[in-house]
Amino acid sequence: MSESTPLTVRLLTESELATRDPRRLAVIRFGQENLLDPARPTELTLALPPLAADTPVEVWEANEPVAAGCDHDLGYAHTRDALFGWILVDEARFDHDMDQAAEYAYDRVLAFHRAMGFPSLLRIWNYFPHLHDEVDGLDRYQAFCLGRHRALERVPLTEGELPAATAIGTTAPGLVVYFLAGREPGIQIENPRQVSAFHYPRRYGPKSPSFSRATLKPWPGKPHLYISGTASIVGHETLHTDVITQLDEILENLRALIGSAGDPMATLEGNPGALSLLKVYVRHAQDVDAVRSRLQEALGPKAPAIYLRGDICRDDLLVEIEGLHA
Ligand code: 3EB
């Protein structure tokens, strides 16, 4: 069964990676800076400092050799079934206007995956520094939402087609957007405990964040669940002011979300610990030990989690978790 599954995600050590494998769609590392080279499009290092010494490498492995390349500033790799791609935008080109940089990145990505014949955006990640610096009365995350919204509206991409997403602050310059697209759409999953992000009230920014809470992708042989960055938000409000209570609320959100994915995910039984990969973004590095102990207590010591330092989309959020069942 696994042989027919077009995509598998593995956590590997550097020594396990030493053997070459032409089926690697993406090899994602975490460090102090962004290292993205169009000449090596399947290798990405993101400026998300790992908070553990033994942080593994995230590897997306296909069931056949990939075709990789670059299109100007955009790197990609694909098989018959799946397209992975990324862009690194130098904000200086846009006078450091994050809305312009985001609009450009999304224009490029949206045009590219469609032109390549993979019209369904399944999952997207957005990383840039200084999320909460204010420029012209707008914080940079809100400016990002504005630019992203403009590009999506033009395509147009409707609410029901929005991919699952993550948006997190990095420690190095540049806007990195990377994505997974397929030939056929996934199924959008919303969280019954949360207002859809695209219906957030205006006080969170002039344009709502454009993402769905999760995408369920029924790949042949094995469904995948791509869970967006999930925070301590109920309705549309941030809840709690301490990191552990926020973490407990996130676990409730993850359970609700997995529950609403329904039958194809029945093996998960609302259990986030059964996911293949959890990425835990921690706002303050000194919180990581407490976060890790609480998460292991709740999900078991074997829960596959990567802990990374990152700013979160609202200034009052101290921790966020994304999940992948693959
Ligand atoms: C939230 O639920 C938290 O703007 O792409 C999580 C995941 C968040 C993705 C995005 C934002 C995004 O609103 C923030």
Question: What does this entry look like structurally?
Answer:
There is one protein chain. With 326 residues, the chain is an alpha+beta fold. The protein has a single domain (7-325), classed as RutC-like (60s Ribosomal Protein L30, Chain: A, 2-Layer Sandwich), CATH 3.30.1330.40. The chain is built from five helices and 21 strands. It has helices at 14-17, 98-115, 140-154, 243-261, 288-299; strands at residues 7-12, 24-30, 35-36, 43-46, 57-62, 67-71, 74-78, 82-89, 120-129, 134-135, 138-139, 164-170, 175-182, 187-189, 214-219, 222-230, 233-234, 237-238, 277-282, 305-309, 319-325. The strands form five sheets. The protein has a six-stranded mixed beta sheet with strand order 6-7-8-13-9-12, covered by helices on one side. A hairpin with a 2-residue loop joins β17 (233-234) and β18 (237-238). The longest helix is centred in the last third of the chain and has 19 residues, at 243-261. It is globular and about 45 Å long. The two termini are 13 Å apart. The mean pLDDT is 95. Bound molecules: 3-(2-carboxyethyl)benzoic acid. The site of 3-(2-carboxyethyl)benzoic acid has 12 residues, from β12 and β16.
Summarize the structure.
This is Chorismatase FkbO/Hyg5-like N-terminal domain-containing protein. The chain is α+β, with helices and mostly antiparallel strands and 326 residues long.
